[in-house]
Amino acid sequence: MDLKLDHHTQDDTEIVVVEGEIDVYTAPRLRELLIDLVNKGNFHLVVNMEKVEFLDSTGLGVLVGGLKRVRAHDGTLDLVCTQERILKIFRITGLTKVFGIYESVQDAIDKRKSK
Amino acid sequence: MALVQLTISALPAHVRTARLMATAVARRAGIAESALDEIRLAVGEACSRAVEAHRLHCPSQPIQLDLIDGGGPRGAAAAPAGPTRAPHNGHRGHRFEVVVLDRAPAKEPAPDLGDPVVHGDVRLGDEPTPPGGISGLSPDVGLAVILGLADEVSIEPHEDGTVVRMSWPLERTDPEADSELVG
Fold first, then answer.
1. Where does the secretion signal sit in this chain (chain B) (predicted)?
2. Which of B45, B124, B145 shows the shortest C-beta gap to A68?
3. Which residue numbers in chain B have pLDDT < 70?
4. CATH classification of the domain holding B13
5. Contact status, residue B28 vs residue B181, Cβ threshold 8 Å
6. How many independent structural domains does chain B possess?
């Protein structure tokens, strides 16, 4: 399936809901959304990847780019993902140490607010 | 050996086509279900890398994908056409092999296959945007992912470009089972 993107605000955090496949074809759309959100002053992002069916290194690059942008504003970009096949690429690349990866959106928000 | 050959234009949309085709052929070859996701991701990485390289250097040239069922009936297909095949690191029988052949100039020096994986201290401050400009990671991360996923990998330059060769063991022991499987 193609990529579906949605976002909404929850507890002062912008939640980006991603559904479908993130690859070299679709990743630019996610990148544009993340840039747009940051440009509009949203510096605390949670990307919900529970409905992501495929993620490659291009998608990882977009997430890292988004993390860099929010960190420039002392912000955060955390992920929600429990799918082993998606988590695998984070482990292979060592990015589990870079992103906060949580089991639910609320967990991600609570963790950030507790810091 | 049975061969499925796919030629795609250097367009990002066709990377998904290549992934789907590789997964379908791997499933038909008898690859374990647990390895199909690895094949899908590794083939996607190899094709993404090739597409980006072609878009930069030779956008009109096609990218070739060979999907080789090494456990299939012998003589079912001729050896893949194209550049001279590099020696394989393991025995060729009873493996599912994917060969991605691009025609973009090979980068020098060749990627270090020893330890290219990104570690926890990813540098976020100097975004190394690759050709195409959408990634915050080095293009070599794609190769690192391939190395992490495929059972055997070789990445070698040839006279026209680069050959990425990946393979996985086949569980199937009876080549005749091939005839029972359809689409």
1. none
2. B124
3. 72-93, 107-136, 172-183
4. 3.30.565.10
5. yes
6. 1
Convert the pLDDT of each residue in A39-83 to its tens digit.
Answer: 999 999 999 999 999 999 999 999 999 999 999 999 999 999 999
Asked if the C-beta of A33 comes within 8 angstroms of chain B's C-beta atoms, the answer is no
Residue B52 lies in a domain: yes
At B153, which helix (H) or strand (E)? strand B152-157
Domain limits, chain A: 3-114
How high is the ipTM of this complex?
0.89
Q: Give a yes or no: residue B121 inside a domain.
A: no
Nearest to B144 by CA among B169, B117, B171, B170: B117
Q: Kindly list the residues from chain A whose CB atom is less than 8 angstroms away from the CB atom of residue B120.
A: 94, 96-98
* ∠ CA A28-B123-B100, rounded to 5°: 55
Residue in chain B nearest A69 by alpha carbon: B124
Fold of A3-114: Transcription Regulator spoIIAA (3.30.750)
